[in-house]
């Protein structure tokens, strides 16, 4: 490869009218660029490569995205896209002798095979490009050998549904690499907007689809492209702008659902059954800052569900999973934690004896010598604690302070959803309704 | 903001073109400002509210439809119903906790008509007098407790 050609790879690797530059990888050992005309057939491409490599054109075969390209195929007929790599193999074809599993589970939808064959738009896969573009981009489906990770892999059968592509070990084939006995295909996705290294891949956002059916967004009622299709039976669709605001609103209300298998997720806004988003990378659409927040909430909810606690020290909030669930004394161990030792029931500094019932409050500072500067700051915290103590009561189940701004005695904890009585400080009952519902 | 206006524009067109039975948008009042609508409701035939006419006032914030509209009964006739306070506030879960951006003005109106239709005895909520004296002007500031879906 000459230095001049290396410059071309980095800068003007684009389709210009009828000509194109293709990256050729020869025998998986070296690469070079080839200028081609989109009207050329594969036979013509082979002749060019053979001349450059000093081999016979009949001796080489070209593999792209798991398929061997036929001599009669024209370059423009294959969905080459930008920055694609053609794998050129020298030598005889290896035989396929393997049986292939063909069952496809329902649920994740079919790979839009017919739509893939239409001329425009060619792209039907979307990924979140977190490295360069930092947004949802068109994606390219690529295949490699699961063993040696080389792209010179020929599929025995094409994938026919998302499960074939997303679950490992379902599609078999032959690795054309010398000395590799790999027989299992591994699919991955790349961003179509820029060239990327061989091992750089992105998670495919398979609920995002090109809006080939001109479906209205369930929220803004406009017809946008692409759309996110919820996994409900109806397949309700939402444009990506609305999806971002929908997620943001639900995140602000901390109204996501913590599902034991699917993670921290959202259902279809129409309230359909079985409509939870089952690949949480879709929430990447929130953007980096909000996705960080999403991940923090998600971790916290998961930890609480597992019986863990969060360190109550301001600015800490570390997640702790005490081994002994009965243990009341909890230490936010350093160096990961802040060193605060607290009571599991009242979330104040650890103390002997019963928790203080008034808000289960009062920082029991006895036994500590307090730094004067910290004491100054603590006065403010003290004030706000007093305010909280006066206007709120802790939820009888999870202890979160609940403010009663008006209305009846019937409270519902916004965090753990317990229905409780403000007056009795116990779960809401028929008796509460009869005796002091709103008195 | 743009998404809110576009969506309201489309909802308004659809409601004017093809209004559900007993629901009429007051287009004169509504066209003045897209963020505040007045909708006339009629009590459904065969129910306690047959022949009665009511008016709903909708207020939409800039985050509509991701956040619910504020909806209250207005005008001279406030329905006497166990979930409707005499100041027009309505205790209906889709207006706060159960709101979804997939709901619309039409679905809210139909829910309210259906809430009226299923009523068996015309009476005010048990806490009406204390609520009306102490509540905020905006019913969305009330932490509602939805105790009975059968009425």
Automatic annotation (TrEMBL), chain A:
Pathway: Protein modification; protein ubiquitination
Catalytic activity entry: [E2 ubiquitin-conjugating enzyme]-S-ubiquitinyl-L-cysteine + [acceptor protein]-L-lysine = [E2 ubiquitin-conjugating enzyme]-L-cysteine + [acceptor protein]-N(6)-ubiquitinyl-L-lysine
Any GO molecular function: ubiquitin protein ligase activity
Subcellular location: Cytoplasm, Cytosol; Mitochondrion
Ubiquitin-like domain location: 20-89
Predominant place of localization: cytoplasm
Domain of life: Eukaryota
UniProt-annotated catalytic positions: 408
GO biological process, one term: mitophagy
Entry annotated with the keyword S-adenosyl-L-methionine: no
Record carries keyword Repeat: yes
Listed EC numbers: 2.3.2.31
Key words of the record: Autophagy, Cytoplasm, Metal-binding, Mitochondrion, Phosphoprotein, Repeat, Transferase, Ubl conjugation, Ubl conjugation pathway, Zinc, Zinc-finger
Annotated RING-type domain residues: 213-439
GO cellular component terms, A-Z: cytosol; mitochondrion; ubiquitin ligase complex
Family: Belongs to the RBR family. Parkin subfamily.
Job description of the protein: Functions within a multiprotein E3 ubiquitin ligase complex, catalyzing the covalent attachment of ubiquitin moieties onto substrate proteins.
Subunit structure and binding partners: Forms an E3 ubiquitin ligase complex.
Protein's name according to its UniProt entry: E3 ubiquitin-protein ligase parkin
Natural source organism: Lingula anatina
UniProtKB/TrEMBL annotation, chain B:
EC number: 2.3.2.23, 2.3.2.25
Catalyses which reaction(s): S-ubiquitinyl-[E1 ubiquitin-activating enzyme]-L-cysteine + [acceptor protein]-N-terminal-amino acid = [E1 ubiquitin-activating enzyme]-L-cysteine + N-terminal-ubiquitinyl-[acceptor protein]; S-ubiquitinyl-[E1 ubiquitin-activating enzyme]-L-cysteine + [E2 ubiquitin-conjugating enzyme]-L-cysteine = [E1 ubiquitin-activating enzyme]-L-cysteine + S-ubiquitinyl-[E2 ubiquitin-conjugating enzyme]-L-cysteine
Keywords from the named record: Transferase, Ubl conjugation pathway
CDD domains associated with the record: UBCc_UBE2W
Sequence ranges assigned to domain UBC core in this UniProt record: 3-151
Transferase found in the keyword field: yes
Biological process terms in GO annotation: protein ubiquitination
Statement: the UniProt record of this protein carries the keyword Repressor: no
MF (Gene Ontology): ubiquitin conjugating enzyme activity
Name used for this protein in its record: N-terminal E2 ubiquitin-conjugating enzyme
Annotated source species: Lingula anatina (Brachiopod)
